[in-house]
Write a structure and sequence with these properties.
By secondary structure, this protein is an alpha/beta fold. It folds into 2 domains: 158 residues, SPOUT methyltransferase, trefoil knot domain (Alpha/beta knot), CATH 3.40.1280; 62 residues, Helicase, Ruva Protein, domain 3 (Orthogonal Bundle), CATH 1.10.8. 42% of the residues lie in helices and 12% in strands. It has a 7-stranded parallel sheet with strand order 3-2-1-6-4-7-5. Strand 2, helix 3 and strand 3 form a beta-alpha-beta unit. Helix 2 runs parallel beside helix 3, helix 8 packs antiparallel against helix 9 and helix 8 packs parallel to helix 10. The termini are far apart.
Length: 244
């Protein structure tokens, strides 16, 4: 099953209604739809609707519960986000380098990802309810991420590794104008160098091999025929002004 359909996002005792709304936006952008709030301080709230923006349809799907037991009912695989190591070591995954075991478990079991309070995260007792802890690398001198940003990062990582390959980006290699022929690009290079010499901004004896760098530049870009024609026209106009 797709991770976006399999995973619930659980926010524990959020203080800011804005973070709830922003988390909904982050979730919808990545295809997630299920949000559970454990004893939120400010919900419902108009601020949630404002910050949720075009993800406001997810508000009516929010489930509000009084404790973590209720939030985890029916959940088989629990992931708890934490920015620091605890005294008792726990199995931990690094967000940018999630293992195959993580994805296999998350895709086959009802999964919840826990996010803690804005000011102090999850308690040790809450963290011990998890099968694994999830670490989001950050500046060790200030490893503090906004709650909604954390939700966005985690949802994106799961989205991009979706086991069914849903929502994958497909590179568009179709171009509206044919790519320029090699000879046309060469003529453009020669023309550019010629005009540069007339403007006295290019010296063939330059020790830094500027001519070779210019040629490398135009070869690397991958110009199409219209772009080459435009640049040739631009250079021709520059030559006319030089003669004047």
């Amino acid at each position: 099953m797709s991770l976006t359909k399999q995973v619930k996002i659980i926010l524990v005792e959020t203080t800011s209604a804005a973070n709830i709304g922003s988390s909904l936006r982050a979730m919808k952008t990545m295809g997630f739809t299920e949000l559970v709030l454990v004893k939120p301080k400010k919900f419902p709230s108009k601020e949630v609707e404002i910050l949720a923006s075009n993800a406001s349809d997810l508000i009516e799907k929010i489930k509000v519960v009084e404790d973590l037991d209720a939030a985890l009912k029916g959940i088989e695989f629990v992931v708890a986000t934490s920015s620091r190591q605890r005294k008792v070591p726990w199995p931990t995954e690094d967000l940018p380098n999630l293992s195959n075991n993580f994805f296999e478990a998350a895709s086959q079991k009802n999964t919840a990802i826990l996010f803690g309070r804005e000011d102090r995260g999850l308690t040790n007792t809450e963290l011990q309810r998890a099968n694994i802890h999830l670490n989001i690398p950050a500046n060790p001198d200030y490893p503090v991420l906004n709650l909604a940003m954390s939700v966005q990062l985690v949802c994106y990582e799961l989205f991009s590794h979706d086991v069914e390959g849903n929502f994958k980006f497909h590179k568009n290699d179709n171009w509206d104008i044919p790519k320029a022929k090699t000879m046309h690009v060469k003529n453009l290079m020669d023309h550019f160098i010629k005009v540069s010499e007339k403007l006295e901004v290019f010296n063939k004896g330059n020790p830094r091999q500027i001519e070779a760098r210019i040629k490398r530049l135009f070869s690397r870009i991958g110009l199409d025929e219209m772009e080459v024609n435009f640049l040739r026209g631009f250079l021709s106009a520059a030559e006319k002004n030089i003669r004047k």
